[in-house]
Amino acid sequence: MLTKTDDAEGMKRSMDVQRVALKMKQHHRGDMEKTQHFVRVYTLAKSIGELENLNVEEQYSLELAAVVHNVEGDRVPAVRDILLGCDIAEDIAMKVCHMVENIENYEHIRTLEHQILIEAKLIVDFKEHNTPEKEIIRKAEDIFITNTGKLFLKRAFRL
Questions:
Q1: Which of 14, 19, 110, 153 fits a disulfide with 86 by CB distance 3.0 to 4.6 angstroms?
Q2: Residue extents of the structural domains in the chain
């Protein structure tokens, strides 16, 4: 059963994510493609995380990472500045920075939320870049491990 403290903490986390999303929209200076990209990755990552039953801390880190994953410039300092500027705790900010820094380095996946972030980003990238089916299947076999990510991939591409 949720307590008022749990509910208040959940609302705070949700507001944190929204505040960071607003900063990212400002960071992209009206570039709708980049904004829509992070919104698609965020939405997909959030759903996969919830369906994979991440705990609240993992879900929070995942959602923050999904929002800031396509920051421009020197990635880690830019992500850190955005997160700390939105009053995100430093330990969470550093975890998110690690995920963003290693979003395309599949050998540095240390957590389930990082795995989910990569799966969500790949699904969105496959759609945005009209990736050939053979490449999607190859990457799916090599990279995807969550049941929900695999299911979403199959449904998105009718595999």
A1: 19
A2: 4-157
